[in-house]
Amino acid sequence: MPDLPASTAPMLQLHQVRKSYGANEALKGVSFDVAPGEFLALLGPNGAGKSTLFQLLTGLFNADGGEVRVDGHNMQHTPVQALGRIGVVFQQMTLDLDLSVEANLRFHARLHGIADRESTSRIEDVLQRIGLIAQQHAKVRTLSGGNRRKVELARALLHRPAVLLMDEATVGLDPASRRQLLDEVLALRDQGVAILWASHLVDEAEAADRVVVLHRGKVLTSGSPAEVVAHTGASSLASAFLQLTSGTPAPANA
After folding, report:
1. I need a surface site. Which of 9, 29, 156, 174 has the fewest CB within 10 A?
2. What SUPFAM superfamilies does the record point to (predicted)?
3. In-domain check, residue 202
4. 240, part of any domain
């Protein structure tokens, strides 16, 4: 993958990424990029390879082939620098329920080497922005599911990443909380954050700047929601997604 000038380079670049588990080829040469300030929805059914891809992007496993770059840093050659530019909200909650909101965030700040005075300012700023400043000293256990997700979003943003990864982050949330979290993340585009939002829920992808449809480890198509619909000749993104991943045309009124 050639180097690009900093002004034009995507924040996240994947080129022919492959990963197998024994005979199971989970990713079969996946390529796409995410630009600064872009919200890209990685849309795929269960088993598409989304979780495997996120495991590679967060350094849990190494790819068998291909290349991943984060803000210009090669994940294989300079993993510390690459991972330091990523913020992530995992599918499963990873907060300490018995610590306060502030304590959870301060622990994360220390892991990233942020001095206490600076972390205090950043914590107050990010909690104010997402509407949780009043819960700063509350134990996470007392918060609703939606607000716990907000705390995880705040934690992911605390070290000011270039790339935000959202891995099925709305699982288990009610519709109002899902919409609120999505709106919070969409607003980050104005700050130049590159956002990769993985989901199997088509309504969440409809708000994306661009959609990548992943199925059985392969990218089937990519483009704006309207372009994906036009590519399939379907009547909606939901219908297009069904058609692409089922291998059969969806009903005209789907």
Report:
1. 174
2. P-loop containing nucleoside triphosphate hydrolases
3. yes
4. yes
- CA distance readout (Å), 175 to 182, 192, 204: 11, 27, 11
In whole angstroms, what is the distance from residue 39 CA to residue 209 CA?
5
The three-point CA angle 25-31-37 to 5° equals 135
CATH number at residue 237: 3.40.50.300
Q: Which residues contact 7 (CB under 8 A, 6 or more apart)?
A: none
User: How many domains would you assign to the chain?
Assistant: 1
Asked if residue 117 belongs to a domain, the reply is no
Statement: residue 3 has pLDDT above 60: no
Are the CB atoms for 14 and 32 separated by under 8 Å?
yes
Which residue reads 């789907």 in tokens?
Answer: 254
What's the CA gap between 194 and 189, in Å, rounded? 7
**β-sheet bridge partners, residue 18:** 28, 65
Structure tokens that stand for 229 in this block = 């619909």
pLDDT for 86-98, tens place per residue? 999 998 889 999 9
DSSP 8-state code for residue 251: P
User: Which DSSP symbol is given to 48?
Assistant: S
DSSP letter assigned to residue 83: H
Q: Is 120 helix (H, G, I), strand (E, B) or coil?
A: helix
Domain that residue 232 falls in:
1-85+189-249
- pLDDT of 5 above 70: no
